[in-house]
Amino acid sequence: MSDGATPWVLHVDLDQFIAAVEILRRPELAGLPVVVGGRGDPTERAVVATASYEARAFGVGSGMPMKIAVRKVPDAVFLPVDAPAYEAASEQVMAALRDLGAVVEVLGWDEAFLGAVTEDPEALARRAQEAVLASTELHCTVGIGDNKVRAKIATGFGKPRGIFRLTAENWFEVMGERPTRDLWGVGAKISRRLADHGIGTVAELAAAPREALVAEFGPRMGVWYGELGRGIGPAVVDDSPWIARGHSRETTYQHNLTTPAEVTAAVRELAEQVFEDTAREGRPVFRVTLKVRYAPFVTKAIGHKLTAPTNERDDVVAAAVELAGRIEAGREIRLLGVRAEMVMPEEGDTAERTPVRGRL
User: Fold this and answer.
1) Residue 198, Cβ neighbours under 10 Å: how many?
2) Which listed residue (111, 216, 269, 346) is catalytic?
3) How far apart are CA 205 and CA 106, in angstroms?
4) In the annotation, is 130 catalytic?
5) Prediction pTM value
């Protein structure tokens, strides 16, 4: 980058956020392996929401079943999820970031993009860290980039409590030989599909013929993955209020559901809860999706676009129950989830929308 004021994107990511909030409330837990998930009972069916760095050293990570976590770290401190406490801490963090004078785009409880024109982005990053620490006693890492993709990935190199800059200038030096799985938006399945085409590293993805990527992933995602390999992505930070596209409810059952009647009753209950969530938004539902986790741990999702957007409870519940009728017969179920997607305000009465790629 040349000298002078330049538009920068900073990605602020709270370090072990949920665990850190819990440790602030219980200082005696500092330095101990702490695992937060479900109701805090590792004998129940639930997944890890977050783990302290001390617990991560034993291989515990977010999304892991609590029963596996306790086998990895029997002496860990297990705590229940306390969403209101995390929401309150997050609001403090975002308020501190807004006081810096940058544009703040909230991504979730524990992360946000900052957009600013500055001659010294590292100085702004330090100010962000100091402001968050002074306001909340929480530590954060800041990634600096010339777009959102590079800023987001940069954060991983700064963990914990650090600052790292990743731009077009050092993209291939830092990322070129790393596996495609290290890219934001490339999961295990996509990386395997890329590997089937001889694409194993970021540099190889960047050099891959566009035609080959489009043939494998389609005209939109194929082009996007090619750009991702070169670190290309949006650079505009948007502070518009976040609007939910949908609401979800799910339950992990302590005992498997084994009969159609049990499944139907459970789906109906979840669908009614989801409808109440959408009703508070005042926007019609146009799609219903059912998530099913069969025993022992195989997850499927089936969706249904409604014939017309609706604000009627019976329509949403009926759509979910209809999906329940498609569940594989004879298989025990350990988790069910119902999601209702709503028409966005700018879409009026049309329920068509452009698919979202991650949080970009």
Assistant:
1) 9
2) 111
3) 30
4) no
5) 0.81
